[in-house]
Amino acid sequence: MNIYLPTLIYSEKDCVMKRGNILASTGKKAMIVTGKHSSKANGSLQAVVDAFEKAGKPYVIFDDIEENPSVETVMRARDIGVKEQVDFVVGVGGGSPLDACKAISLMIANPLVGAEVLYENVMLPYLPVVTVPTTAGTGSEVTPYAILTLHQNKTKKSISHKIYPVMALVDYTYLKTQSENVLINTVVDALAHLIESYLNTNANDLNRMYSEQGLRMFSQVKDSLRKPDDSVYKTLSNIAMIAGMAIAHTGTSLPHGLSYSVTYELGVPHGKAVGIYLGGYLKLYQNKEESKRVLDFMGFDDYDGFSAYLKELLGDVQIPEELVKRNAAQIFENKAKLKNYPYDVTKDQLEKLLG
Ligand code: NAP
Ligand code: ZN
Predict the structure, then answer these.
(1) How far is CA 55 from CA 15, 31, 61, 88, 170, in A?
(2) Are residues 161 and 81 in the same domain?
(3) What is the reported pLDDT for 1?
(4) How many Å lie between the centroid of ligand 2 and the Cα of residue 199?
(5) Average pLDDT of the residues in 154-172
(6) What are the C-alpha distances in Å from 143 to residues 37, 192, 242, 251?
(7) Is the per-residue pLDDT at 334 higher than 60?
(8) N or C: the chain end with fewer CB closer than 10 Å?
(9) Is residue 138 within 6 Å of ligand 1 at its C-beta?
């Protein structure tokens, strides 16, 4: 039973400003990695820039990370980072810029190698990574994972390297500019992390404490997602971070495995693509005592109540029959994708996870 969580976390309002001196002292020159728009609108990018300006520390901004970032974008940022001689990377935004920034840190530290090393099992150095999340979903601010779009494989895949951020600056006020859809999709992602970590081959009494706590916190806010106030935003940001701590120890399971083609092929946002499988996943465990505990922590009486809640939140998502079957068949053939589900599963059960 091992716990490893090396990220220094500050979770508080204005923490980028308050901890700006620690942020700026992470290295000599930073690359700030962010998305195209939202970090400018919610103040997170400006807060990071202000910290560097105040400390007189040089930095360069790469603000071209797309949703579900691609290997190609990572390589474009690497070229700039190498040219600018940066020695640490700060990711600002949702899971997409945060994941991209981990991969960029690895590629800058290894300027002579090609993108294929992202998916090779070799030990390589990487630059220190600091994360400033602006969604309450992926938990990427504390996880070692980075999921990139691999256009050549027509899907998304986690890179082989585990890159824990050295520091996470988590300010819930950045969440306030989210649209209702972004908030709901990302919160459902965090919920999926909590459930898939609790119901997981790698789960044990010690690491389940993260999920249990996160699910109990979720029960307090689950009916306020369409009318969040400050206290809800604060709770959501901590739920997502705790959910990240949970999957950092166990990984995710079948809903995440099944979601990637749905996102790649249909453009369904990550949290929504995972959420459509979540009710079915919990039901797979209905004869096991631990799934009743999950329902109980969340404050649901039964499986149908939970599925109905998700359906109301996410709306109808139409997945063509052909994709449902192909996706189930591909996951069924891929032992790595099945290994975090501790029991035998049939292709038919995988197809029916959609409900
Ligand atoms: P995202 O792809 O980072 O962002 C989705 C959208 O939300 C973008 O349009 C973004 O705008 C916008 N946005 C972000 N913060 C906002 C804010 N505060 N206000 C308004 N709009 C905001 O979404 P995400 O769900 O956080 O991340 C999904 C990615 O993370 C996927 O690639 C997924 O595979 C990955 N993921 C990683 C882990 C992990 O452990 N590392 C776990 C689960 C998922 P801009 O583009 O303008 O910024
Ligand atoms: Zn996820």
Answers:
(1) 16, 15, 17, 15, 20
(2) yes
(3) 57
(4) 15
(5) 96
(6) 24, 15, 10, 10
(7) yes
(8) N
(9) yes
Ligand 1 binding pocket includes 140 (Cβ within 6 Å): yes
Angle between helix axes 208-221 and 289-298 (nearest 10 degrees) is: 40
Q: How far is the CA of 54 from the centre of ligand 2 (A)?
A: 35
Average pLDDT, the chain: 97
Q: What is the DSSP letter of 56?
A: T
Domain, as residue range, for 93? 8-173
Q: Is pLDDT of 283 > 80?
A: yes
Q: Average pLDDT of 12-20? A: 98
Beta strands 59-65 and 30-35: pairing type? Answer: parallel
Cα 326 to ligand 1 centre (Å)? 27
The whole-angstrom separation of Cα 259 and Cα 25 is 39
64 within ligand 1 shell (Cβ under 6 A): no
- Domain of 270, CATH number, reads 1.20.1090.10
192-219 pLDDT tens trace? 999 999 999 999 999 999 999 999 999 9
Q: Is residue 1 part of a domain?
A: no
Which of 173, 189, 211 delimits the end of a domain? Answer: 173
What is the number of the ligand 1 atom nearest to the C-alpha of 256? Answer: 43
How do residues 52-82 score in pLDDT, each as one tens digit?
999 999 999 999 999 999 999 999 999 999 9
- CA distance linking residue 355 with residue 353, whole number of Å: 5
Nearest CA owner, ligand 1 atom 8: 67
pTM of the predicted model over 0.90 = yes
